[in-house]
Amino acid sequence: MNIIQKILAQNQQTQLNKGSTIIGINQPENFKVSDVGTAIKNVINASLVIAALVAFIYLILGGIQWITSGGDKSAMESARNKITQAIVGLIIVAAAYAVMNLVSSFLGLNITNLDIGNIYK
Question: Which of 35, 53, 55, 62 could form a disulfide with 89 if both were Cys (CB 3.0 to 4.6 A apart)?
Answer without folding.
Answer: 55
